[in-house]
Design brief:
seven-stranded antiparallel beta sheet; about 400 residues; single chain; alpha+beta; globular
Length: about 400
């Protein structure tokens, strides 16, 4: 037998001179189910921390609130977990306190400069009806509007840099002033266009925040486009107008009925009663105000919640990180019930229901957020630097700092 016939006999019958394709398994492995963000905090435990912080804040005339806010954040962060690992909050009350002092100092310097300029420009010729207190108030209001989105972004950055998961810190890059400029610019353009640029504004600002959010050395991604949601927004826009028209018609009918029932009173008598209200007049006033907000909640809020739920679902689904994709199934009914009940809680507890609102917010996030995929441990490393030495500063000065 020749060597060629031996080689031919060693080959399988189907051999054609080219490598065979790899074998395909008869059954493909099922995709991994999504992972849900978990929250296991207890309302009672959160209230203990909150009430203790509130008491110490009252005893220290407000100075303990920075440490109290830190305690609440540590509790909430530590009761969130993903893929079996909990989050950590590493912020310090002292950092928030120092940030507040720096912000107050910066505003005082600004006010001093404004007063100096006014005095040099007018001096003793300043009209008597315009006091220095009025000038300082208006100067603060004028500077607060453009600085508020800047302060918000700086506050987000602080909270991100103090958050860690599996020992790796999150972060927020980008410029606070750049974000603030975008927010103010979009706000002005949107107002001039009667809010018709809302999808472009929301996608732009949300995209800026998401793309500059980091975990370790990697950035999040965002692929949202305003064109994707404009059709739904236009529907919401005209539904919102129709809802307001119906609301004004209903309010007009109610006012007409009330006016006919008090028709015996002259306009001067009605003004006199409003100027010197009796307990019954005050009760009627608050009932009318409550009725108006109830009508808004019934006629206007559901339309806005419909758009809000859709926008949240879209923005979340267009964000990703490494191999992770995010999905939320929050509905209009959930958003409406969430906002209405939060309002009722805060109203009837005079603000003491804040921990209840925080707890409900944390539960809603954990119940409605799913994560698809998994993180490649070899791809994520700890980022170097990026910490700020102080806290949220201007947010505390403007009293809009939140957990």
């Amino acid at each position: 037998m020749t060597d060629q016939s031996i080689a031919s006999a060693a080959l399988p019958p189907a051999w054609s001179g080219t490598p065979a394709p790899p074998a395909v398994p008869a059954v493909m492995p099922p995709p991994k189910p999504p992972v849900q963000l978990l929250y296991d905090g207890k309302l009672g435990e959160l209230y203990v921390i909150y009430l203790r912080s509130l008491l110490l804040t009252l005893l220290t005339l407000g100075w303990y609130r920075f440490w109290g806010r830190t305690s609440v954040r540590r509790y909430l962060w530590s009761h969130f977990s993903a893929f079996g690992d909990r989050f950590e909050y590493r912020g310090l009350g002292l950092e928030l306190f120092l940030g507040f002092l720096l912000a107050v100092g910066a505003l005082l310097v600004f006010e001093g400069i404004v007063l100096g300029v006014v005095w040099l420009a007018w001096g003793d010729d300043l009209p008597a009806e315009i006091g220095m207190t009025d000038i300082m108030t208006w100067a603060l209001l004028i500077v607060a509007l453009p600085l508020l989105p800047v302060a918000q972004y700086a506050g987000w950055r602080y909270r991100f840099t103090r958050t860690a998961w599996r020992g790796i810190r999150t972060g927020l890059k980008g410029s606070s002033w750049g974000y603030g400029g975008r927010a103010i610019g979009w706000g002005m353009l949107n107002a001039m266009c009667m809010n018709l640029l809302t999808p472009m504004r929301d996608v732009s600002l949300n995209g800026y925040r998401t793309r500059h959010t980091t975990f370790g050395n990697l950035n999040f991604g965002f692929a949202g486009r305003a064109a994707d949601i404009y059709g739904r927004f236009i529907g919401f826009y005209f539904l919102n107008i129709a809802a307001w028209v119906v609301l004004f018609i209903v309010v007009g009918i109610i006012i007409g009925g009330v006016s006919s029932s008090v028709g015996s009173l002259s306009f001067e008598q009605m003004m006199e009663r409003l100027a010197n209200p009796t307990p019954m007049v005050l009760l009627i006033f608050f009932l009318v105000l409550f009725g108006f907000y109830t009508l808004v909640g019934i006629m206007i809020l559901p339309v806005r919640c419909w758009w809000m739920a859709y926008s949240i679902r879209y923005m979340v689904s267009r964000a990703w990180f490494d191999r992770l994709q995010f999905v939320t199934g929050v509905t209009t009914r959930q958003i409406w019930g969430f906002l209405v009940l939060n309002y009722v809680i805060l109203l009837f507890t005079l603000g003491l229901g804040g921990p209840w609102v925080m707890h409900r917010t944390a539960r809603l996030i954990s119940q409605q957020l799913w994560i698809y995929g998994e993180i490649d441990p070899a791809a994520v490393a700890q980022a170097l630097g990026g910490d700020t030495g102080v806290g949220e500063g201007l947010l505390d000065v403007f009293d809009v700092g939140s957990v």
